[in-house]
Amino acid sequence: MHLLMEVAANTGHNFPLAFTAVYIVGFIAAVGIGSIAWYNSKRPAGWESKDRPDFVPKVEADDKSSTSEPKS
């Protein structure tokens, strides 16, 4: 038991920088994609007359139904 405690104390804090970078980039991507999706969704109450920001791309909804008729 003493050996395990000594090994744990000598390891230090060597958390890889790559893991931190992945979390940061992922968070930024999630916020960006979520913001675009929110602006393209139906506006919440009180926001109906607000304009879309210039930096948010317009995403058109596909009006086709998800079921397709078989072709003869």
| Fraction of residues in β-strands | under 5%
Mean pLDDT: 75
Rg computed from alpha carbons, rounded to a whole number of angstroms: 25 Å
Could you list the spans in which at least 5 consecutive residues all have pLDDT below 50?
none
How many helices in DSSP terms? 2
Please tally the β strands and state the result.
0
Give a description of the structure.
The chain has 72 residues and is mostly helical. Helices cover 46% and strands 0% of the residues. It is built from two helices and no strands. The chain starts with a helix and ends in a 32-residue tail after the last helix. 0% of the residues are buried. The model has no long low-confidence stretch (mean pLDDT 75).
Key features of this structure:
about 70 residues, about 45% helix, mainly alpha, 2 helices
In short:
With 72 residues, the protein is an all-alpha fold. It has helices at residues 2-10, 17-40.
Question: What is the element layout, followed by pairings?
Answer:
Blueprint: H1 2-10, H2 17-40
